[in-house]
Amino acid sequence: MTSINIQNVSKSYINYPVLQGLNLDIRDGEFISFLGPSGCGKSTLLFCIAGLEDITSGSILFDGRDISGLSARDRNIALVFQDYALYPHMSVRDNLAFPLRQQKIPEETIRKQVAWAAELLGLDQLLDRSPAELSGGQRQRVAVGRAIVRNPAALLMDEPLSNLDAGLRVRTRTEIKRLQRQLKMTVIFVTHDQEEAMVLSDRIAVMNAGIVQQFAEPMTIYRE
Ligand code: ADP
Ligand code: ADP
Fold first, then answer.
1. Of 182, 115, 187, whose CA–CA distance to 153 is shortest?
2. Ligand 1: nearest atom to the Cα of 53
3. In angstroms, rounded to a whole number, what is the distance separating the alpha carbons of residues 220 and 72?
4. What angle do CA 207, 208, 213 make, to 5 degrees?
5. How many angstroms is it from 85 CA to the middle of ligand 2?
6. What span, in angstroms and rounded, lies between the C-alpha atoms of 73 and 55?
């Protein structure tokens, strides 16, 4: 749980400006979508927040603290991508445990955390399977479970549903919303799908060509 303040953030690749003076104040426990066409800078902004890309100017604050000096790991942000890259040779249980094992957390605690994440995501019956034995939707639930298992400050998702078929997409987004409400987790969700942003978000940042055109509640944005 955390608030995220994006203050006058710009990002250029060489001389090409991708993000131009963005300002967004994201509240603790809010579900935010970055919505806009391909190439408008959504992923770049997400990566800057996660610490996977450096910003060119401006600042990003977590809970009021400037995080520009912090590595991706120290930002304690969880990321989920569309291709749910699970470790293929590990069971679901070990995929869920992996981020905790890397932090050298005691096995007893790991068992509890994995059981907690598995229950939240309905993975209890699948813990001994390998990723190859799961459906696309189940894999994406494991990816979400692995992202939240260490209780991150925020969950950032980049088009997490776009590899799922239509029915599964709706079910999985309902799951993600339920989880976010239950955990009161700050979530940033990148999508080019307007309906997805509408049903999921407390507020939507509508982006175009490196700027935020609107940042408001779905009904405010789409009233006209
Ligand atoms: P979106 O997520 O909205 O599709 P991106 O953030 O991926 O957009 O990309 C925004 C712009 O930045 C695009 O024009 C893209 O070509 C450019 N871009 C992204 N990554 C790089 C990079 N590593 N080097 C140069 N340009 C990049
Ligand atoms: P972190 O630094 O977040 O603890 P890693 O740097 O090990 O994790 O991996 C970053 C991401 O890359 C992982 O979340 C995972 O999705 C993917 N990844 C890394 N290694 C593998 C692998 N061997 N097989 C599949 N995906 C992997």
1. 187
2. 23
3. 34
4. 55
5. 7
6. 17
**pLDDT tens for residues 95-148?**
999 999 988 899 999 999 999 999 988 899 999 999 999 988 899 899 999 999
Q: Which of 70-74, 161-165, 188-192 has the highest mean pLDDT?
A: 188-192
Residue 41 in tokens: 């800078």
Residues recorded for the chain: 224
Residue 9 CB-density burial (10 A; 0-12 exposed, 13-18 middle, 19+ buried) = buried
Q: CA-to-CA distance for 42 and 51, rounded, in angstroms?
A: 14
Which atom of ligand 1 lies at the shortest distance from residue 43's CA? 2
Report the C-alpha gap between 211 and 23 in whole angstroms.
Answer: 9
Of the bound ligands, which one is closest to the alpha carbon of residue 42? 1
Six-digit token string for 122:
């309905």
Edge-to-edge strand ranges of the sheet holding 57-62: 16-26, 4-13, 57-62, 65-66
